[in-house]
Write a structure and sequence with these properties.
alpha/beta; Cobalt-precorrin-4 Transmethylase, domain 1; 15 helices
């Protein structure tokens, strides 16, 4: 199967649900250089990634090579996603690629994307149409091979890919429009690096030159270019680029909360977790006063292990339940368990210290690579504690590491180690950490600007990013 997917103008939040759905199923992703880094981070870890970017005067792959690759990989029985900036059928050569696929007799689907022609001006607070200013909008490319330029003086003119050809574009527009026609140039629209410049048509070329504006950029000409309905400006995280290192499937809600506040979010998992099958073989879960959980992953792993071995949670008997953090506690409640103790400071050390004071038998469910300090605390207090490792953490090989990051979120010491194994730079970036152990690991790896979230809760992480 081949999908021609529009990735939108850059912000990963503007990738459509259908686009994300098919991207998760891809065996091969052939992507353009205008695809946002947050979207590239959503490409499955095992998928083949092919950069087919076209730069001015320098094409990574020719159009013929791109089309041949799609057909070749699809005939190998692979799922192909042709990932294109904006919408594949708006100046994206998607129509040409669809023709080639049809000629080859292969199945395909077009997944429309949010076009930069409308989204980028919207993110700059510029409506493409407005009942008090204009009655239409023209969308065209400044690279039109037919050299056509409509004479619609009362409509908004939107030009894609116009910066490199701005002098000629200005000259042509001056043939039909007033020199005082309002214009706007939006560079890197919808991303944290977005810049907006307002000018007049007679100053268009000079504005581009004096401000060193580079592609990708959208040029708007018309009365609406004077408007500045900038809804993003008031958002507290507007202009911030935040990297989340949580495992796949664990960062979606946090991403949504940060995007709601205006941040550009890139989800780059640095670890993956997997249940240690057979970990409960020969383990007696009864006879303990407390059962402790250090993470949501541990909760899920325990119930998976119980199910696969034909056992259930009743084996814990009357043991009370302890958990690190509100999210872990909520996961336990979702499985029908009452949580009796959550430490005020959400980390393993404070959970151990809190339970040790009860001086009762404890069964801890934890990661194979968990901190040895937890067991040491129980031994210090002379408490009988058994630790059962029910899941493991592996580091993810980072195929694509974005730059220009403002904040990195680390939710465990292992996410710090996984990130630093794959990235040698960005140590000067602010690190937002859950708990003292995670922060200490960040210090050991060279981070100096560190903020510790007040609690191991998403809301606290978001506040720490502000």
């Amino acid at each position: 199967m081949i999908w021609l997917v529009g990735a939108g103008p850059g912000d990963a939040g503007l990738l459509t649900l259908r686009g994300h759905e098919v991207l998760k199923r891809a065996d091969v992703v052939i992507y353009d250089h205008l695809v946002g880094e947050g979207i590239l981070a959503l490409i499955p870890e095992g998928a083949e990634r092919i950069d087919a970017g076209k730069y001015s005067g320098n094409h990574t792959l020719s159009q013929h090579e791109i089309e041949s690759l799609m057909i070749e990989r699809a005939r190998e029985g692979k799922n192909i996603v042709r990932l294109k900036g904006g919408d594949p059928f708006v100046f994206g050569r998607g129509g040409e690629e669809a023709e080639v696929i049809i000629e080859a007799g292969l199945a395909f689907e077009v997944v429309p994307g949010v076009s930069s022609a409308l989204a980028v001006p919207a993110y700059a607070g510029i409506p493409a149409t407005h009942r008090n200013y204009c009655s239409g909008v023209n969308i065209m490319t400044a690279h039109d091979k037919n050299n056509l330029l409509p004479d619609f003086s009362d409509t908004t003119q939107i030009f894609l890919m116009g910066v490199s050809n701005v002098k000629a574009l200005q000259e042509k527009l001056l043939l039909t429009l007033s020199p005082d026609t309002p214009c706007a140039i939006i560079e890197n629209g919808t991303t944290s690096r977005q810049r907006v410049f307002r000018t007049k048509l007679c100053e268009l070329c000079r504005t581009v030159r004096e401000n060193s504006i580079t592609p990708p950029a959208v040029i708007v000409a018309g009365k609406t270019a004077e408007l500045s309905l900038n809804w993003r400006k008031a958002l507290p995280l507007n202009g911030r680029r935040i990297l989340i290192t949580r495992p796949s499937g664990r960062g979606e809600k946090l991403s949504m909360m940060l995007r709601d506040l205006g941040a550009e979010v890139i989800h780059l998992p640095t670890i993956r977790t997997s249940t240690l099958h057979g970990a409960l073989d020969g383990v007696n879960l009864g006879g303990y006063d407390w059962a402790g959980f250090t993470s949501i992953t541990g909760v899920g792993a325990l119930f998976e292990l119980l199910a696969e071995s034909g056992r259930d949670i009743r084996e814990l008997g009357g043991a009370r339940i302890a958990a690190i953090g509100s999210a872990t506690a909520e996961s336990l409640r979702a499985h029908g368990l009452k949580v009796d103790f959550v430490p005020e400071i959400y980390d393993g050390l404070h959970l151990a210290e809190g339970l040790a004071k009860f001086r009762e038998k404890v069964l801890m469910f934890r990661a194979q690579e968990g901190s040895p300090e937890i067991g040491e605390i129980f031994r210090k207090y002379g408490i009988n504690c058994e630790e059962v490792c029910i899941y493991r953490t592996d580091y993810v090989k980072l195929a694509h590491v974005p730059d220009s990051i403002d904040t990195i979120i680390f939710t465990s010491a292992s996410t710090v180690r996984g990130f630093c194994l794959g990235v040698n730079s960005l140590r000067e970036v602010r690190a937002v950490c859950i708990g003292r152990q995670t922060a200490d690991e960040a210090v050991r790896h060279g981070f100096s600007d560190i903020v510790i979230a007040e609690q191991a809760a998403l809301e606290a992480i978001v506040r720490a990013c502000s």
